[in-house]
Design brief:
By secondary structure, this protein is an alpha+beta fold. The protein has one domain. Helices cover about 40% and strands about 20% of the residues. The protein has helices at about 5-10, 35-50, 60-70, 75-85; strands at about 5, 15, 20, 25-30, 90-95, 100-105. Strand 5 and strand 6 form a beta hairpin. Helix 2 (about 35-50) crosses helix 4 and helix 3 (about 60-70) runs antiparallel to helix 4. The chain starts with a strand and ends with a strand.
Protein backbone atom coordinates (compact mmCIF):
# COMPACT_ATOMS: atom_id res chain seq x y z
CA UNK A 1 0.00 0.00 0.00
CA UNK A 2 1.29 3.44 -0.92
CA UNK A 3 1.97 5.77 1.99
CA UNK A 4 -0.28 8.81 2.15
CA UNK A 5 1.10 12.07 3.45
CA UNK A 6 -0.58 15.23 4.69
CA UNK A 7 -0.12 17.02 1.34
CA UNK A 8 -1.95 14.34 -0.63
CA UNK A 9 -4.71 14.10 1.98
CA UNK A 10 -5.47 17.84 2.01
CA UNK A 11 -5.26 17.98 -1.78
CA UNK A 12 -7.59 15.02 -2.27
CA UNK A 13 -10.18 15.53 0.49
CA UNK A 14 -13.19 17.73 -0.05
CA UNK A 15 -16.24 18.47 2.06
CA UNK A 16 -19.37 18.79 -0.07
CA UNK A 17 -17.22 19.33 -3.17
CA UNK A 18 -15.24 22.15 -1.58
CA UNK A 19 -11.56 22.14 -0.58
CA UNK A 20 -10.86 21.59 3.09
CA UNK A 21 -11.07 24.65 5.26
CA UNK A 22 -7.83 24.96 7.24
CA UNK A 23 -9.80 25.37 10.46
CA UNK A 24 -11.42 21.93 9.94
CA UNK A 25 -8.23 19.85 9.90
CA UNK A 26 -6.36 18.50 12.91
CA UNK A 27 -3.70 15.89 13.46
CA UNK A 28 -4.25 13.13 16.00
CA UNK A 29 -2.21 10.13 17.11
CA UNK A 30 -3.32 6.53 16.68
CA UNK A 31 -5.17 6.67 20.01
CA UNK A 32 -7.21 9.72 18.98
CA UNK A 33 -5.18 12.17 21.09
CA UNK A 34 -4.80 15.57 19.42
CA UNK A 35 -1.29 16.56 18.41
CA UNK A 36 -1.55 20.29 19.08
CA UNK A 37 1.88 21.38 17.82
CA UNK A 38 1.45 19.53 14.53
CA UNK A 39 -2.15 20.75 14.18
CA UNK A 40 -1.08 24.36 14.81
CA UNK A 41 1.71 24.06 12.24
CA UNK A 42 -0.69 22.54 9.71
CA UNK A 43 -3.26 25.29 10.40
CA UNK A 44 -0.61 27.95 9.77
CA UNK A 45 0.64 26.22 6.62
CA UNK A 46 -2.85 25.68 5.20
CA UNK A 47 -3.84 29.29 5.89
CA UNK A 48 -0.85 30.43 3.80
CA UNK A 49 -1.75 27.94 1.07
CA UNK A 50 -5.32 29.31 1.03
CA UNK A 51 -3.98 32.84 0.57
CA UNK A 52 -1.08 32.35 -1.81
CA UNK A 53 -1.39 29.20 -3.88
CA UNK A 54 -3.87 26.80 -5.42
CA UNK A 55 -3.42 23.14 -4.51
CA UNK A 56 -5.04 22.06 -7.76
CA UNK A 57 -2.09 23.52 -9.69
CA UNK A 58 0.51 21.62 -7.66
CA UNK A 59 1.72 18.05 -8.00
CA UNK A 60 3.97 17.78 -4.93
CA UNK A 61 4.47 19.42 -1.57
CA UNK A 62 7.66 20.94 -3.01
CA UNK A 63 5.53 22.78 -5.59
CA UNK A 64 3.58 24.35 -2.73
CA UNK A 65 6.77 25.37 -0.95
CA UNK A 66 8.18 26.82 -4.19
CA UNK A 67 5.00 28.89 -4.65
CA UNK A 68 5.16 30.14 -1.06
CA UNK A 69 8.84 30.96 -1.47
CA UNK A 70 8.09 33.07 -4.55
CA UNK A 71 4.94 34.75 -3.26
CA UNK A 72 5.64 35.40 0.42
CA UNK A 73 8.44 36.81 2.56
CA UNK A 74 8.38 33.71 4.77
CA UNK A 75 11.87 32.75 5.98
CA UNK A 76 13.44 29.48 4.89
CA UNK A 77 13.17 27.90 8.35
CA UNK A 78 9.38 28.40 8.31
CA UNK A 79 9.15 26.97 4.81
CA UNK A 80 11.24 24.00 5.95
CA UNK A 81 8.73 23.33 8.75
CA UNK A 82 5.86 23.61 6.27
CA UNK A 83 7.62 21.09 4.02
CA UNK A 84 7.96 18.69 6.97
CA UNK A 85 4.28 18.88 7.92
CA UNK A 86 3.15 18.45 4.31
CA UNK A 87 5.43 15.41 3.91
CA UNK A 88 4.29 13.89 7.23
CA UNK A 89 3.00 10.34 6.64
CA UNK A 90 -0.47 9.58 7.93
CA UNK A 91 -1.97 6.19 8.59
CA UNK A 92 -5.61 7.15 8.41
CA UNK A 93 -8.27 9.80 8.07
CA UNK A 94 -11.22 10.18 10.42
CA UNK A 95 -14.20 12.35 9.59
CA UNK A 96 -15.51 13.57 12.94
CA UNK A 97 -18.80 15.04 11.75
CA UNK A 98 -20.03 15.78 15.28
CA UNK A 99 -16.93 17.98 15.76
CA UNK A 100 -16.99 19.28 12.17
CA UNK A 101 -13.37 18.11 11.84
CA UNK A 102 -11.21 16.04 9.56
CA UNK A 103 -8.66 14.20 11.70
CA UNK A 104 -5.45 13.07 10.04
CA UNK A 105 -3.94 10.16 11.99
CA UNK A 106 -0.27 10.88 12.62
CA UNK A 107 2.26 8.24 11.65
CA UNK A 108 5.51 9.02 13.54
CA UNK A 109 8.65 9.12 11.45
CA UNK A 110 11.18 6.55 12.63
Amino acid sequence: MKTVDVYHAIKMLQIEHQPLNHSQVVIIDGNGKPQSQLSDLLFDCMSKIDLFTDLSTTDTSSDVIDDLHLLTPLPNDVLDEYQKILDQPISGINIASHKNLVELVYEPLV
